[in-house]
Amino acid sequence: MSAAVALTAGLLHTASFAPTGAWWAQIAALAVLFGLASRATPRVAALCGALFGWSWLASGLWWLHISMHQFGGIPWLLAALAVGLLAAFLAGYYALALGLTARGIAPGRMRLLALVPAWLLAELARATWFSGFPWVASGYAHSVGPLSGWAPWVGVYGITALAALAAAGIALLRERAWAIAALALLLPLTGALLPQDFTASSGRLSISLVQPSIPQSQKFDPELFAQNWQILAELIHSAQGAVVVTPESVVPVPLAETPVTTIDALASPGHAVLLGSFLGNQDEGFVNSVVALGSARYDYGKRHLLPFGEFIPPGFGWFVHAMNIPLDNQARGDHQRAWRVGGQRLRPLICYEDLFGEDFVQSAVGADAATLFVNVSNLAWFGTVMVQDQHLQFSQMRALEFQRPVVRSTNTGATAVIDHRGQVTARLPALQRGVLEASVEGRSGSTPYARWLNSLGLWPLWLLALLALAGARRAAP
Q: What CATH class is the domain 202-445?
């Protein structure tokens, strides 16, 4: 019975993320899980954590199947098995957290409270260990809703802990611990009462966000290169903004292998163009990059690479090579300061990088801090269902944490503009070829979260969670 409930609760947890966006479902699902684990044996608690995590992550990451089967040529059953195995590995963090908590603390109220820091530790571990894979981390469900006010103070993982506290509060109602339950439920809601204005306007910039909508099956076809190039050139030349942003790898070959005259043809008089391509060479490795055209030399290379898609984890070369992914083992780029253009400072983030605010927080503090984040992505590998809306939701959280606008230029979606309040103010429909024109207000200044994250990283959350867990164990009967 507990197994079926845990699996169902995991599916409810997935429903809390975009495109459904039912933030309350995240807390409700976690309350069910905590209720199961609060009185279970260590083995059953670990099993519940594993089944909940597997159900949530397999259903939230199912779209990985598309890249492996449709574009990688792996039989659909093996691709589905690979997604299931990945979800099982990631679910191990939650199984370990719940199982060890149940082993160390007797059933009851104190165990329920201890599950809050245990859950936070599991989420931090998934986000950082083995290069990190925090896609659909539980805090992202609260990019909207009453907990979002905490974002500029404690960030996505602080919100993770607060949501877990609210879930424990619901479970504590069953224990008739009325006072503790009320405190656990009310504290997360106080984020709306906290000061929210930490940045000021730095002026406006007209930006054109290009969405070529070239099918992934055609993107790397050399026979279609000229046709795709013509589509890109026409979109760039039709743009009206002072800055034109193109998606990740919109030029799908190393820039050094592209004739200079061809590159120059993409430059648009009176406009600065940020072009997605690859820098580097065969010997030193190719780097997923964006390069500025029509302005002072600027390039940025992706630093946080996607496992299996952009770098090969040890022992998995056979699997990655079987999918025949172009440029499948890339080099990491060097850190670059923000790009100064049009009176603003733009900080590029290439696709998956914007899940790791702790990696680029230095660009959100200090006199030379970015006034605007620019995400360039190509999610055409994964279809359009769920994945685009999920990534947009993550960008909304980054905008809230740092109170900076985030603009997104993608191949097939979601090309969008997010203001510093995390609101999506403009968006192109998925698979629609076109240019999204927007006037974007840059922001200067730093949030409390940006300041302490820049100084200390995520260590304060690790330490608080460990101390809370140790305190709960000592206080337990």
A: alpha beta
